[in-house]
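Quick one, T. Sequence first:
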Amino acid sequence: MMSPRRRRPLRALLACVAAAATLLIAACSSAGPVTASPSASGKPQSGGTVTFALPPGNSPNMIFPFFSSQYVGNANLNDFMYLMYRPLYWEDGTTFQLNESKSLALPPVYNASRTAVTITMKRWKWSDGEAVSPADVSFFMGMLDKELDNWWGFVPGEFPQNVSHVTYDNAANSFTLHLTHPVNTEWFTNNQLTLIQPLPLAWDVTGPGKTATCSDASAADEASCPAVYNYLEHLATNTSTYATNKLWQVVDGPFRLKSFAPGGSTAVLVPNPKYSGPAAHISAFEIESFTSDTAEYNVLRSGNSLTVGYLPFQDAPVKSAAQAAPNPVSGYSLEPWFNWANNYINFNYENPSMTSLFSQLYFRQAMEELVDQQTWINDAFNGYAYPLYGPVPTYPANSYATAYEKSDPYSFSVAGARQLLTSHGWTIPSSGPATCTKPGTASDECGAGIKQGQQLSFSLVYSSGVESLSTEMQDYQSTAEQAGISISLKTLPVNSLFAMDGPCTSSGGPTCTWQMLYFGGPVSMQPFWYPENGLGFICGSFANTGGYCNKELDALYTPVYQDEGISPLYTVENFEVQNAPSLNVPVQDAQLTEVADNLGGYTQSGTMAIEPEDWYFTSGS
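Structure tokens:
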């Protein structure tokens, strides 16, 4: 993972959609965060292979679009699965509104009480000739009912638990979700309906030639779903058959898989000739993986073997001079990929040795005050980043971020961090970690569960292969030492971090061993666009990988989901800023993209989705 274009269901992003469109479109468009790449000169051509570089350490390892959180990453979603299997609704990454032309259904229609929503399908086709229909949604809903624990998007009380039942109107090619309570329609459209993933009926099997009836039509149909899931999930673990298994060739997206190298180092996709949308211009799309950003950069500079690559932050011209400085890679245009996102370092509240310490608010506040955001922006990212103070990005200017968050209440201050620790019973020596010398639960003591003599010493693991991340973490380690906090650093490949970053089991286990974890961000939350930020912090949520649990915060989410308007969101946002459940760190541009000068139609989406079906090569450039 480079300055990784990562997707993880832990946070929600700013959106300019639905009911708030009139409120925020001006903010989005005036800031201009995401625009189309300048068109390449020359005449558009048909054919040609686009080679696309994945972030370091990223490679696709899941093809079945019903998966657990360990497989959530950009290499699996936007750069792989979504090219073949489209979700019900597609977001436009330049406007943050539903892209009607690329969605599988017409815009949703809510009833007056906001307790039901009807969705009409567009009669698109799967590549085997079957219609993309309500039956495919019923297949997905049946799978959800029986395999909810194996689905990455589940949050207790939310979809599908906020749906009482579904009715299907085959004649009208529509279905209606009947809800358990009124909903905030903007939130429900952008954070719930975007989760629906129609599944082809060709996959409704339990083995070769063994058809099933997995759907939510009846209890008998739902009873067949576990066997279907187990079979498909088993097939999906065998990456060597991704390109040869006929099931995975049934697609409704613009591409199908032609070849897949062991380990996912390369994958070649070709146009789906039965795609219901506009046909792709290129003849092939090849994604390539790299062990480090240096390895990718060496390939990029060696010639034109990459059509779309990236420039490591440490090799980029300083942003203030970027317009005047020459691009260090000839034959390409340098285009920073802005991502409307947040970025954070996770605490593991369920690690038995860290629970007591990480549960102390004063400690988390001190840790936040040790994040020197401006230094990281300058030294790690050459200016291609911006500060983050809470769950809602404050840049570009928008109406979702509150004044309290914008005030940066835990701004960088080593002295402030030291004062927070010493005023709560810690003694900071001239060198080495601080020690708890005043245990107890009074306001001037270390806090519940912290013992006499306990030291401020723990580990932080982060994504390997990215020099800018090492620059950040080494600075943080050095700064923390000044406040008596000893942090040992360790790096792992990003796929290893994904596997590690899961909720702890009741008996502990491997996922409980990490103490602090940093993917390197930025975290773009497709398909969660309304910035309620609930997924990462709701008690018991499958996506709450750090295990933070605050019942008061849980109660604040209910009106965010159920009431129209933005004021409940402000309340949640301010609560999270005050309580610092994770460390906010700078949000760098998703990557410093290098686009070949002969590639036209290229755009960079704020959703981090890619749309290579729109790209084309030109002649005469």
